[in-house]
Amino acid sequence: MDATTEDLADRWYATLFSVRRSIRYHQRRRSFFDRLDKISNMLSLIFGSVAVYGTLQDNSKDIALIASGLVTVFASINLVLSSATRARDHTDFMRKYVELEKLMLGAESEQLLLEVAARRLSIEAEEPPVLHVLNAICHNETMRAMGYAKEDLPKIGPLQKLVAQLFDLCESDIQNPKAKDPPQTAP
Q1: Residue 4: its pLDDT value, please?
Q2: Distance between the two ends of the chain, CA-based, in angstroms?
Q3: What is the number of alpha carbons within 13 Å of residue 15 lying toward its C-beta?
Q4: Do both 14 and 95 map to the same domain?
């Protein structure tokens, strides 16, 4: 292979990897917001029922007030976060990336790679800000799915994984394992 063919193959692989990582990222975000919506609705229903029970019983007024307050809190959180809408948005982004991956199933060509890159930029322009730790988790999942060894994966701490859907925690600590080796200097 000549240099331009190798370069095309490398760029094709990098783009395909990136598209697959983005699909995983949006699947995880959709799943998170779906769970948040369902849990919030479930808790609102449970505590709403407890509030009704508390109002019907003479000695349970305190329970009714607490349950009513909890319903208000859970419903407010769900309303402010718009979890159902956000889940739907991430579903749409995932579908757009799946369409890009379908395009890449054909033969590698410079023109097709440019088309995929242009479409990808259009999708990225519409996306909300990326959670970098979650993106790194999806990067690792994609690497495992594509056959990379565990030693090649960047290390992500358990606390980082726990809060990855909420905010980035020490994202600068996530490094490529091969990049940690100091550069070799000439004697």
Answers
A1: 65
A2: 35
A3: 25
A4: yes
Predicted TM-score of the model (pTM):
0.81
184 within a domain of the structure (yes/no): no
> 186 phi and psi, to 5 degrees?
-75, 145
Give the C-alpha separation, 91 to 86, whole Å: 9
Integer-rounded Cα radius of gyration of the chain: 23
Reported as a single tens digit per residue, the pLDDT across 22-63 is 999 999 999 999 999 998 888 888 888 888 877 777 777 788
Q: Distance between CA atoms of 99 and 186, rounded to whole angstroms?
A: 48
Asked if residue 48 and residue 32 are part of one domain, the reply reads yes
Instruction: Assess if residue 186 is contained within a domain.
Output: no
| Domain assignment of residue 160, given as a range | 130-179
- Cβ-contact 12, 108 below 8 angstroms: yes
Do 19 and 97 touch, CB atoms closer than 8 A?
yes
Residues in the chain predicted with pLDDT less than 50, given as ranges, are: 1, 179-187
